[in-house]
Amino acid sequence: MNRDELLRxxxxxxxxxxxxxxxxxxxxxxDLSSANLCRANISYANLSDANLQSTNLHQVDLSYTNLIYANLSDANLSDANLxxxxxxxADLNNTNxxxxxxQGASEINGGNNVNLSDADLRQARLADxxxxxxxxxxxxxxxxxxxxxxxxxxxxxxLSSANLQYANLRRMDLSSVDLTNADLSxxxxxDTLLVGANLSGTILxxxxxxxxxxxxxxxxxxxxxxxxxGANLRSANLSKAWLEYQDLSGADLSHANLSxxKLEDANLIxxxxxxxxxxxxxxxxxxLRSANLIGSDLRNTDLGCxxxxxxxxxxxxxxxxxxxxxxxxxxxxxxxxxxxxxxTYIGAGADLxxxxxxxxxxxxxxxxxxxxNLRGRxxxxANLIxxxxSNANLKNTYLKNANLQQANLSxxxxxxxxxxxxxxxxxxxxNTIMPDGSIKNHNL
Length: 444
Known about the structure:
The chain is mostly loops. The chain contains 1 helix and 10 strands; from the N terminus they run αββββββββββ. The strands form 4 sheets. A 3-stranded parallel beta sheet has the order 1-2-3, with no helix packed on it. Strands 4-5-6 form a 3-stranded parallel beta sheet, with no helix packed on it. The chain has a two-stranded parallel ribbon with strand order 7-8. The longest helix is centred in the first third of the chain and has 9 residues, at 3-11. The chain is elongated and about 100 Å long.
């Protein structure tokens, strides 16, 4: 059936178009409100801006159909196939999508009183918007990514018995959500608000959470991983976990499985990673200072720009790992014959004048940095309390808001350095070249 025939019959009062074939038809802006299209084939069609309010679309094939800004309010889409459909801006208020296949559907903006019970939402994208007073009980949301890239809210939503395995729910407010008997195994609940949610019977096996206000008597929490400084995560299975920017300083991660984990910018200062599996993990810019990595598996691991100062990597496996601009000190212990050609040494006599990355906020308290070349580097907000910077080249160096209390600046070159709001209390000056070119020979 083509568009013209459909419009003619609809205008004549006909409403039953069940099992009709409209695949690939251009139905942009069409009004089929209250029509019966049960089991119709409308795959690959253009239904953008169409009025499908109160339409019966039960078991309809809408795979790869353009439904942008379509009005689907009060429509029956139960058991419909919306695989790969475009739903940007579609009105889903009071829509019945129970048992519908929404795999790969794009830009679901949400709505009120939407029935998504038992719907398949794997890989669906829930874009900026919200679902309010809606039913997602039994829905398959495994591996769905709701955060942090989108701003999607779930308010007074039922997710009882839903499959949320491996779901990324970071930073979401789930305080008003019913998660009774939901499966949140391996879900990422970091920075997620869970207090107030109904967690009766919820499965939290290997889930990651950070909410410290959860009642301690929730039995399922013993199966989840509390991500926090000093946490006991010994032998934890954190493979492929998203842990970037997380503070795990001092945590016990010995023999943990962190293969393929995302640990960019993570704080692992002083962490125990003895025997940990970090194969193919991303540790770019991670802070591993003074961490214990003895016997760890770091094959194919990205350690670019990571802080390995004073870390112990004795016996670690580093085959095909990246140490590009990785920072290390004289106290860093590497396996024998490790290639440090692309790594960056920081300490007495080091030359960091060509180091391309910022050292802003870096902690170098009490470090021996004598004769170091830091010309032009960004050390704003750095902690240099008590550091030995004698004979250091700090020309054109940015030291705004840096703390140089008790630092030794004798014979240092500070010509044209930025010392705005720098704390120099108790610093030692002897034959020190100041920013204006003058020579300073006494403490402030």
